[in-house]
Write a structure and sequence with these properties.
By secondary structure, this protein is α+β, with helices and mostly antiparallel strands. Helices cover about 45% and strands about 20% of the residues. It has seven helices and eight strands; from the N terminus they run H-H-H-H-E-H-H-E-E-E-E-E-E-H-E.
C-alpha cells in the first residue's frame, strides 16, 4: 500500500492552512476591510483557529492515521459548504471579498477531495480484488517473537487482552476449522473461523462469519490475520490486517476508514496487554504502547 498520495494532499493542506492562518493573524484588520466591513478581531481569531487546525494536520501527517485524515477531509468540505453561501448574502462582501471566499473554498475543496482519494487509494492497495479494502498495521513489540505468538495463538484468551471484549471462547482445537466466538462489552457477538494457523511461520488467518444474521459489522465478507516476525534486536514485529468487502459498494470504504480510528487505538492496547502477559486489559492505557505504522 502506498501512502504517498495521502501524505502529499495532507502536506498541501498543511501549507495552505498555515499560510492563511499567518496572514489573518498578522493582517486580520486589513483583510477584513478588503473583504468588506468584517471585524478585525474576527479575522484574527479565525487565524488562530486555522493555526490550530494546521497543527492538527501536522500531527496527523507525522503519524499518518487514516481515520483522522478522513476527519480532516470532512472538516475541509464543511468549510466549503459553510463559506460559499456567504457570497450570496447581500451587502456582506465586496467584489474582492467574494472572489477571495470562492478561491479559498476551491483550494480547500480540492485538497479535501485529494485527501479522500489518498485514503481510498491506501485502503484499496492491498491487491485483494475489486471492491475489497484492506487495513494493515505493523507494530514493534518489546516481547520476543515466541512469547507474542504464544499469546496470539491462544485463541480463547483474547478477552484477557482486549478491554472491548466481554468474552471469547473457542469451539474445537486451535487449528483450521476451529470457531472463535467473541462478545463485546456492548453485547454484540460474532464468530471467526480459523482458516490457517502456522506455528513455524507464526501466522494466523481468520474468516469472520458475515453470513450470520446478527453479524454486527457492515461487511459482506471479512477476513483478518496476524503475522509475527523477529526484529534485528530479538524482539517481535507483528503485522495485523483486516480485509473487507463492504455492503455499501460505493461508499463502504468510508466506513472502514472511520473504523480505523478505534482499530489503530485498540490494537496497540491489545499488543501491550499481550506483552504484559494478559494482566487487566483496562489498565493497558497506562502501559507503553508499541509504535504503529501502516504496512
Amino acid at each position: 500500500m502506498t501512502t504517498r498520495p495521502l501524505r502529499a494532499a495532507l502536506a498541501a493542506n498543511l501549507g495552505f492552512s498555515s499560510l492563511c492562518a499567518l496572514t489573518l493573524i498578522l493582517a486580520g484588520p486589513e483583510v477584513g476591510r478588503m473583504m468588506g466591513a468584517l471585524p478585525g478581531w474576527l479575522m484574527t481569531a479565525l487565524g488562530f483557529g486555522l493555526l490550530g487546525f494546521a497543527a492538527f494536520i501536522a500531527i496527523v501527517l507525522a503519524r499518518l492515521r487514516i481515520g483522522w485524515a478522513l476527519v480532516i477531509s470532512g472538516l475541509d468540505l464543511l468549510w466549503v459548504v459553510a463559506t460559499l453561501p456567504l457570497i450570496a448574502v447581500p451587502g456582506l462582501l465586496t467584489a474582492d471579498g467574494k472572489l477571495l471566499v470562492a478561491l479559498v473554498a476551491a483550494i480547500v475543496g480540492l485538497v479535501g477531495l485529494l485527501q479522500l482519494r489518498g485514503v481510498k487509494t491506501l485502503l484499496a492497495g492491498g491487491g485483494d480484488g475489486e471492491g475489497v479494502y484492506r487495513h494493515c498495521v505493523r507494530l514493534h513489540s518489546s516481547a520476543t517473537p515466541d512469547a507474542l505468538w504464544a499469546a496470539i495463538r491462544d485463541l480463547g484468551a483474547m478477552e484477557r487482552y482486549s478491554a472491548g471484549l466481554r468474552s471469547s471462547r473457542v469451539e474445537g482445537d486451535a487449528a483450521p476449522g476451529a470457531i472463535r466466538t467473541c462478545t463485546s462489552t456492548q453485547g454484540q457477538s460474532w464468530a471467526e473461523e480459523v482458516v490457517s494457523l502456522d506455528d513455524a511461520e507464526r501466522t494466523l488467518v481468520l474468516r469472520f462469519q458475515t453470513e450470520a444474521e446478527d453479524f454486527p459489522f457492515p461487511f459482506m465478507a471479512m477476513r483478518g490475520g496476524w503475522t509475527v516476525k523477529p526484529a534485528a534486536d530479538g524482539t517481535a514485529a507483528v503485522e495485523i490486517w483486516w480485509s473487507v468487502r463492504p455492503k455499501m459498494r460505493r461508499l463502504g470504504w468510508l466506513l472502514l476508514a472511520l473504523m480505523t480510528i478505534p482499530l489503530d487505538r485498540d490494537i496497540r492496547r491489545i499488543v501491550a496487554a499481550m506483552e504484559a502477559g494478559g494482566s487487566d486489559p483496562s489498565t493497558a492505557h497506562a502501559r507503553r504502547r508499541p509504535a504503529l505504522s501502516y504496512c
